[in-house]
């Protein structure tokens, strides 16, 4: 009986170490040079896990239990990862003198619609971050897998 109780407690400990992990992205700032522009910024989630419906848009990676079982992690505030990304970038650029308009997107929108939304802001710089892959996976060592395509357009570009 004692062995069963100990095994149960060990199992609970291993599971509790991995379940319900959240990652804080609010208050993350990049050190960028002074850049005084009027910017429209959109982060567009095109991660396969999100587009296919396998993961929610707040997905940021996996943490693993002591047994190596992967558990998905989300953003601490529950908002989509790309919204957190846009907010952090916007704050970083604003601290350096730019005026930034964040354009929210949905993963199921077409790229042409996202670009149209950026153009409607009438800013002189348009930034579209196409998030094709971004997640962490940790078991002993944490790895970051990412594929971000960043497109920067000026008002002279023919879109």
Q: What does this protein structure show overall?
A:
It is a single chain. This protein is of the alpha/beta class and about 160 residues long. The protein has one domain (about 1-155). It contains 4 helices and 7 strands; from the N terminus they run H-E-E-H-E-E-H-E-H-E-E. Strands 1, 2, 3, 4, 5, 6 and 7 form a 7-stranded mixed β-sheet that branches. A hairpin with a 5-residue loop joins strand 3 (about 60-65) and strand 4. The protein is globular and about 55 Å long.
Describe what is shown at a glance.
The protein is of the alpha/beta class and 159 residues long.
Provide keyphrases for this structure.
35% strand, 4 helices, 27% helix, seven-stranded mixed beta sheet, globular, alpha/beta, 159 residues
Per DSSP, the total helix count is 4
Q: Provide the helix percentage.
A: 25-40%
Shape: globular
Number of extended strands: 7
Query: What's the rounded overall pLDDT mean?
Result: 84
Structural class: alpha/beta
**Strand residues, percent:** 25-35%
Task: Detail the topology: elements first, then pairings.
Blueprint: H1 2-16, E1 22-23, E2 38-45, H2 48-51, E3 59-64, E4 70-75, H3 81-95, E5 99-102, H4 111-119, E6 125-139, E7 141-154
Parallel strand pairs: 1-4, 2-5, 2-6, 3-6
Antiparallel strand pairs: 3-4, 6-7
